[in-house]
């Protein structure tokens, strides 16, 4: 009888807290000893223990963000593990949803798992039912423990005890672990509240405190490091103004609870300051900026929504590249895009795409799922485009988050990446409920289709931006002679920059053209960006030909160029 194949067993251990990890014998070692003994008992089945240690000390079982677990999953994907041995099921995870995701990965790579203290067989339906019941109770136990910890912290705060971390600015911790008023900075806290309520701006308060030499309190951490002594910043002032503990109360689950903490201000002063904060900084509906978190520049930097102007709600909005250390080192300037024009361009490009059956078919076919409902989905494109145009901005953002993983801004175009599978779901959507991102399993493969639309973009300060100009999709046919002329102008310009020491006559000889032709072509580079884009996408006036463009008297004023070449009537 042939012997069973060798089973490479990996032992995984976990402990929720880091308390006791410095002892000679830890909980992790105890778990490993039990699992190792179990593997030795299965020697007749050709089981053997892998030497790699997968220990997660001080990590919660409520999520999968654990270094040892990530290393274990990587080894499973590389085919180095045949079986996972654990002390108890909740050592692997306490979340039912996370366990389902883990099981999918294990089944994909044909890896089994064993819980030493809980005997069950997952090869039949009854065993899987018992396993799910155990995991459900493990998740319930974790949630109950979280509630207990939150309630205990609230009870300690009510008694005046501080539950950890640095004490709030203006308070100290006495020898009994209770919060007491810091005489120096407690007076400063009262001053900050009263000045803000009387109309002072936060930067003015910070400047006044810096001129008077105020700094944060110095202290020594548990590891013996000296901390604090830094200038008081706007972040410190903002946190002070929003912290209800200065009224002698704590907020627990939305309820104000009086605590045994000496107050620094009255509740009336607190309410007055909160009304002033709301008046100065009204809440912004981030669904209004529906490209937030999706927009990237051509260098891959995320673009953040910015506002300038007297008010936050009616301010001038624009998207700006986030500052990155590598881009500062390499001297890459930030990219600015007007928010209204960028958002209109995205909506127009999506609408044009959904009205193009050939583009929809190509995008759906990326998923390689051939079914009889493709013809029906293609007919739904125009209807889906109409629904998209009529959506509220909040609903449009929800749909966009489901359809697109990212949107990229390039020098002359806007690129929208579309999930092929989500596109199929959007076309089949009945339009009743809000279309939102679908919960997907970990590591699920998505194919994307790229939508491109012409858009002019200028780097520089936001006030001097050239707007993005969306182009509607019509039956346009670019003139081959004009587009070739624009490409030739770009190539000639690069030659001039590369050979600045040479004369135009020498460059013309090198390019095998006359000097007169070289000069006339180089002038094309000074056309307005919208004129160049119109030539490239075929929307230029009918009378504009290659010869007419070469013979035209070139002026630097863009408005005169448009009138002269027939893009707008002359006055």
Can you describe this structure in just a few lines?
With about 575 residues, the protein is α/β, with parallel strands linked by helices. It is built from 22 helices and 18 strands. The protein starts with 6 loop residues before the first strand and ends in a 7-residue tail after the last helix.
Summarize this structure as a short list of keywords or feature phrases:
single chain, 571 residues, alpha/beta, Rossmann fold, Hect, E3 ligase catalytic domain fold, 4 domains, five-stranded parallel beta sheet, four-stranded mixed beta sheet, 18 strands, 43% helix, extended
Notes on the protein architecture:
43% of the residues lie in helices and 13% in strands. The protein is α/β, with parallel strands linked by helices and 571 residues long. It has four domains: 7-143, Resolvase, N-terminal catalytic domain (Rossmann fold), CATH 3.40.50.1390; 171-280, Alpha-Beta Complex (Hect, E3 ligase catalytic domain fold), CATH 3.90.1750; 295-464, no CATH class; 480-564, no CATH class. Strands 1, 2, 3, 4 and 5 form a five-stranded parallel beta sheet that branches. The protein has a four-stranded mixed beta sheet with strand order 12-16-17-18. It has a three-stranded antiparallel beta sheet with strand order 13-14-15. A hairpin with a 7-residue loop joins strand 13 (303-308) and strand 14 (316-321). Helix 6 packs across helix 9 and helix 18 (504-511) crosses helix 19 (515-522). The longest helix has 34 residues, at 125-158. The model is unreliable at 458-466 (pLDDT under 50).
